[in-house]
Amino acid sequence: MKHLQLALLLFFLGITAVFSQSQKGVWLTNVRSEALDSREGIETAVSNCKAYGIDHIYVVVWNRGHTLYPSEVMQETFGVKVMPRFAERDFLKELITVAHREGIKVHAWFEFGFSSSYKKEDGGHILRAKPLWRAIDHKGELVSKNGFQWMNAFDPEVQDFLLSLIVEVVNNYDIDGIQGDDRLPANPSTAGYDAYTISLYQKEHAGALPPSDYKDAAWIDWRARKLDLFAKKVYETVKAIDSNVLVTMAPSIFPWSKEEYLQNWPRWVKEGWVDAIIPQVYRYDIKSYEATLTANLEFISKKDREKFIPGVLLKVDDYIPSEDFLTQMIQTNRKYGILDEVFFYYEGFKDHPLFFKNTYPKL
Length: 363
What we know:
Layout lengths: L1 H12 L2 H4 L4 E5 L10 H13 L4 E5 L1 E2 L2 E2 L4 H7 L12 H11 L3 E5 L5 E4 L5 H6 L14 E2 L2 E3 L5 H17 L4 E5 L13 H10 L12 H25 L4 E5 L5 H6 L3 H6 L5 E2 L8 H12 L13 E3 L9 H13 L5 E4 L8 H7 L4
Parallel strand pairs: 1-2, 1-13, 2-5, 5-9, 9-10, 10-11, 12-13
Antiparallel strand pairs: 3-4, 6-8, 7-8
């Protein structure tokens, strides 16, 4: 009955015809998932995506200080070509081959962005090898937030390193898109107190030091603008290599994204530096979901609304949304003319296989 109600809603909204042409995506990760650990796992994941009407896969290629694909950049810079777990095979190449065979697009998701490690007090092997790359907070310490340690996103050398990984993937793989998220481009708003960034600020402010209050509005704006320029550089660099490769970002919701991680993503959309923005509208009840969704839509002009794709929470740790709540979130998206969504993350499909089989048209 629930599936019939949703189908009727879509019919009366008059969007059934275009529904199959819009994007239905999912994030595929190596955390709490073994889908990428074998060719069989990849075949199963792609088969499930096809059965569930998913036509875009956002697959992790960078986390915990390692690429998950064999990288010459990592080999030359840090002497570690690939995350040891994936040392025997190139799963990215396998996934692209299998997914393309089924008409599914694959995006390289640079999950950790400017974060060097998770729960490593010294920032992991990257910052042990490159201590000058450390992001420094207002206390003079390595920036660490919510368990993640950070590189200095304002340092040109660090930016060039991240960009070189993106370029490597675009050059070496038949990829359909690349994606940053709430860590690319980003830095916690506590960052910016390293020698390089302070010097840069002083050059632009007649020798004055940055405010000691890291939440100072002008200081937030100044740092956010620096990261805006990196977002622009990523977009222009990718498009110069292959204009068909999509550049998408999946930041936190705004304005929290700017206040906490210096991500002023409405500007990225306005300036045309992204092909799609996929904010993480992760909420646990429909009232909060709708309020957050509509609040973020206010930052997007009508002409850019088609670039806005909500990120929908499908599973995290032990949390799984009910089928009723999933239905409500999709209905809410359609209510505001949004035809697309991307789900976090793939393993959540196992809890709702019939829902997805009966909700989305098949490829």
